[in-house]
Design a protein that fits this description.
- The protein has nine helices and 16 strands.
- With about 450 residues, it is of the alpha+beta class.
- It has three domains: about 80 residues, 2-Layer Sandwich (PmbA/TldD fold), CATH 3.30.2290.10; about 100 residues, PmbA/TldD superfamily (PmbA/TldD fold); about 210 residues, no CATH class.
- The chain has a six-stranded antiparallel sheet. A five-stranded mixed β-barrel has the order 7-12-13-14-16. The chain has a four-stranded antiparallel sheet with strand order 10-9-8-11, with no helix packed on it.
- The longest helix has 16 residues.
- It is globular.
Length: about 450
């Protein structure tokens, strides 16, 4: 057999072979990506990597027995062997009545163009020059900048196809570009490090190296003189860049896997108030060029605009087909996660949020993984700034912030409009009424 000329042809060949193998159903996921990344430090190239990745994944269903196999070899012989392996695994698997393809009526009928593919016409040599220039500008920002963690530039283009034996075949291309810089500052025997980065689908949407350099340096210098706090209970603002982790914890708690395993503190919470009434949380999967946009989920189910929280009340879980069946529900088209999760918020600036808090902790960095989704207990290392009268007074470090997510969510006071759009969770800074800050 001749080598397939494109991934959709490859997917069709695989589907045809799955149908001939005698199993009930099957699905194919194929992807390939290429690009490069460079790291420069102290004016010289530190690393340069070229990426070329291929993946071919097969899952077959034989009377609710499931078998999966994968390969990075796209040859016809490899396709046949991968399918044989998946079928063999299925024959020796225990039946699972909840397994199977997504409901055919929910599959995407129209392939929406989310404008995700914008290749960056930049050579490795130009990327190196860009990184070195960015680092140089950051190092020159302030005499207290004494060292560098380096500057990084990367660009990756990828293409994926998902197809199944119910007749669905969908594909889309996307590009991911990034620029980052990290520097070290020193003063009075103390050293601090911080960074800044920009990511985008379209290289024209990347922030300038002048901005990245000055922000990385400014953030680093501002951390000099950091001290610990006395242990206390006070209001806390999560800066937008770390606030998205709070919403990420919420999504974990309403995701099907944790729910059917009964390992979520929001088990059986559908229809109950979780947040204050002024908060609504929703996804917008078709925003043009956004980092979290997708025309369909990992099962081919059409992605749709939908609310998870409306007026403070939990109105939907985050489900793929398997978890939905386990819970006796319907998929929400979220196999693979959420797509451009957003929060309805008033037009409040970060400074107005600080004014509203008056006195408390402004968190700009979180450390550790001390979050228990089963109980909601939350405890993470943190760094940031102490605020008095709505104004930043001094940097703080070596502290821990703690509480329970149920109380944290119920105690959200306001969201700012400084929306961070660099991931699939888009939120501004968040003010929480009170948390325990553990220090000295």
């Amino acid at each position: 057999m001749a080598q397939p000329t494109n991934l959709t042809e490859l997917a069709q060949i695989a589907l045809d072979q799955i149908k001939k193998s005698g199993v009930s159903a099957g699905e194919v996921s194929i992807g390939e990506s290429s690009g490069f990344s460079i790291a420069a430090r102290l004016g010289d190239v530190e690393t340069m990597e070229h990426h070329l990745e291929k993946s071919f994944n097969i899952t077959v269903y034989d009377q609710h027995r499931v078998g999966s196999a994968s390969s990075s070899d796209f040859s016809p012989e490899s396709i046949a062997k991968t399918i044989e392996k998946a079928c063999a695994i299925a024959r020796f698997s225990n039946p699972d009545s909840f397994s199977g393809l997504a409901d055919p009526s929910r599959l995407a009928k129209k392939m929406l163009d989310c404008d995700l593919y914008h290749p960056w016409d930049i050579s490795p040599a130009d990327a190196i020059a860009l990184a070195i220039e960015c680092e140089k500008k950051a190092m020159a920002y302030d005499p207290r900048i004494v060292n560098s963690g380096g500057a990084h530039v990367s660009t990756v283009n990828s293409y994926g196809v998902y197809a199944n034996t119910d007749g669905f075949m969908g594909d889309y291309r996307q590009s991911d570009h990034a620029l980052s810089c990290s520097v070290v500052a020193a003063e009075n025997g103390q050293m601090q490090r911080d960074d800044e980065y920009t990511v985008a689908r379209n290289p024209n949407d990347l922030l300038s190296i002048d901005y990245i350099a000055s922000r990385a340096a400014e953030k680093t210098v501002k951390r000099l003189g950091a001290r610990r706090l006395k242990t206390q209970t006070c209001p806390v603002i999560f800066e937008a860049s770390v606030a998205k982790s709070l919403l990420g914890n919420f999504i974990s708690a309403i995701s099907g896997g944790n729910l059917y395993r009964q390992s979520s503190f929001l088990l059986n919470a559908l229809g109950n108030p979780i947040f204050p009434q002024f908060i609504s949380i929703y996804q917008q999967p078709h925003l043009l060029s956004a980092m979290g946009s997708r025309p369909f989920d990992q099962e081919g189910v059409a992605t749709v605009d939908q609310y998870y929280v409306r007026d403070g009340e939990l109105v939907s879980y985050v489900l793929g087909s398997y978890s939905a069946r386990k819970l006796g529900m319907q998929t929400t088209g979220n196999a693979g996660g959420v797509f451009n999760l957003s929060v309805e918020c008033n037009d409040v600036t970060l400074q107005q949020l600080l004014d509203k808090m008056q006195r408390g902790l402004f968190v700009t960095e979180l450390m550790g993984q001390g979050v228990n989704i089963t109980t909601g207990d939350y405890s993470r290392g943190a760094a940031g700034f102490w605020v008095e009268n709505g104004e930043i007074q001094f940097p703080v470090e070596e502290i821990t912030i703690a509480g329970n997510l149920k109380n944290i969510f119920a105690g959200l006071v306001a969201f700012a409009n400084d929306i961070d759009v660099r991931s699939s969770i888009r939120t501004g800074s968040i003010l929480v009424d009170q948390m325990t800050v553990a220090g000295e």
